[in-house]
Amino acid sequence: MRYITGGTNLIDIELILKKSKIASGATVADLGCGSAGHLVFPIASIVGINGKVYAVDILKNILETVNRKAKQENFKNVKTVWSDIEVFGATDIEQNSIDTIFVVNTFYITKKKNEVMREIVRLLKKSGRVVFVDWKNSFSPFGPPSELRVSIDLLKDLAKNNGLKFDEEFFVGQYHYGLIFEK
Predict the structure, then answer these.
(1) Which stretches of the chain are assigned E, i.e. beta strand?
(2) Which of 61-70, 79-88, 93-102, 137-146 has the weakest average pLDDT?
């Protein structure tokens, strides 16, 4: 079992990947990928040489780190994309081209949640899926303040209002929930 950690096991990556149902040859984007590429590199292994993984972040130094690791580990199917996903149309990826989008521990950060949701919908193919993983609205000894955490109901409403259909809810660890929607 692989976990995203902060000194303790927080998120079960293998469960997220299993629930996402990504397959060989898929085109995938990780929005807010982070410098460790916790999802980018396992996804790159799954989609293989005929697939593509877009590692998207607003911080250029994060993307440089992901690029270095991709080169060191010979992942030719990883492409970094600098973008502010709060701006509709800003992500330099063809619209309607992504099979699966991951938004992991990123959605709580944005103040423009509807704009981010619009950008997600713009990028997804018809029948494409988006996997959200974020902090539960319950007490935890770490993580973002409770007022920044996104409730499951709010996320479901935003997705529905932007034309996404709810598919599944699951728990990814003690402190996180997962939601999957389809375009």
Answers:
(1) 3-5, 9-12, 27-31, 52-57, 78-82, 98-104, 124-135, 165-173, 176-182
(2) 137-146
Pick the CATH number of 3-182 from 1.10.260.40, 3.90.1150.10, 3.40.50.1240, 3.40.50.150: 3.40.50.150
Say how many C-beta atoms besides its own lie within 10 A of residue 47's C-beta.
22
Cβ–Cβ < 8 Å for 122, 97: no
* Tokens standing for residue 132: 């959200």
Cα dihedral sign, 130-3-1-136? negative
Identify which of 120, 104, 107 has the alpha carbon closest to the alpha carbon of residue 173. Answer: 104
Smallest Cα–Cα separation from 113: which of 126, 101, 127, 103? Answer: 103
For the chain, give every domain's residue range. 3-182
Q: How confident is the model at residue 140 (pLDDT cuts 50, 70, 90)?
A: confident
CA distance 65 to 73: 12
Q: What average pLDDT score do residues 18-32 get? A: 97
Residue 3, pLDDT above cutoff 80: no
Token look-up 């149309």 returns: 89
pLDDT per residue over 161-181, tens digit each? 999 999 999 999 888 999 999
